[in-house]
Amino acid sequence: MVNKEFGITGIGNSIVDIIVQVEDDFLLEHNLRKGMMSLVDLDGIQNLEKKFKIETTVSGGSVANSIVCMSQNEINSAFIGKVADDDLGSAFINGLNKEGVQFGSSQFSDTEKTGRCIVMVSKDAQRTMSTYLGISQKLNEKDINEDLIKKSKILYLEGYLWDLDDAQSAIRKSISIAKVNGTKIAFSVSDVFCIERFKESFLEIIKNDCDIVFANEEEIKALTGGSNIDEDLNTLMNEDKILAITKGEQGALIISQNNKYEISSEKIDNLVDTTGAGDIFAAGFLEYLIKNYEIQECGKRGIQLASKIIQQYGARF
Questions:
Q1: What is the pTM of this model?
Q2: Mind listing the pLDDT tens digit for each residue in 67-87?
Q3: What pLDDT, in 10s, does the model give residues 171-204?
Q4: Is 76 within 8 Å of 50 (Cβ atoms)?
């Protein structure tokens, strides 16, 4: 067995997040679905950038957010993604390195720029995202760092990867490497927007490849097409999987070994921004799983960290 020197390696979009505040009228005016993610081109993202007072920027991306949080909590972590040979690409890598995360790729010269996401936060703390994937959409099999996956206890994948042109073959390669080398596979379905387009592919990977699955209630409904979450879960589960479902103010539901664990939410004094709450929940859950805590404690850790992150802007501590 290969020495598992890394707790986790994540593969995901390398995205610089730009956090802004918006009114609901702005979302309606620009035909943006509240609480959802939509893809735009470079012109589109640059036009949006001109309309806002920017609150903060941070090197982001769903899995990258989780990986950084885990590194902050003493999990040896790595990340595989694709950035351009530009200022934002350098900033993205430096941001990970400063947090102790090993970046398992290189910068590439290309006509595409490093990806970015405008995260529009409403007064009710809902976040609506417009994303320019840039060069990250060119992630391919050659970018997969086989050595990092071999040496990791967990490989963590995000549903947003399915939007990338060559990423599905890269995902298949990474899953194959993980299975051969005893690396567990965790998967976040990411967004209802993704499920609507890649439902069958998502169901296949969940049923056949994943050991740990993260989703919220709306995403579970979108996956199963049902309205009763308890009945719907039977179509996704077997006794070998862990399913972690976030339920907003109602906390979380963890299913493992045919047991269900309801995890209570924590009191929120100042709800500011739900950006990255799911990413940070996953980070806390996986952190404790790697540290060999009981499943219920993993869920509590996820809720604890997610409750903290939503009381500030952005998805980084």
A1: 0.88
A2: 999 999 999 999 999 999 988
A3: 999 999 999 999 999 999 988 888 999 999 999 9
A4: no
Specify the DSSP class assigned to residue 135. G
Q: Which residue has the tokens 């097409």?
A: 225
In the CATH hierarchy, which fold is given to the domain comprising 6-13+61-109+136-309? UDP-N-acetylmuramoyl-L-alanine:D-glutamate ligase (3.40.1190)
The helix (run of H) or strand (run of E) holding residue 49 is helix 42-49
What size, in residues, is the chain?
317
> Which residues lie closer than 8 Å to 196 by C-beta, 6 or more apart?
222
Beta strands (DSSP E) in the chain are 6-11, 15-21, 37-39, 54-60, 77-80, 83-84, 102-103, 107-108, 115-121, 127-132, 152-158, 184-188, 212-216, 242-246, 252-256, 259-263
Q: Compute the chain's Rg from CA coordinates.
A: 18
Tokens matching residue 274: 């739900």
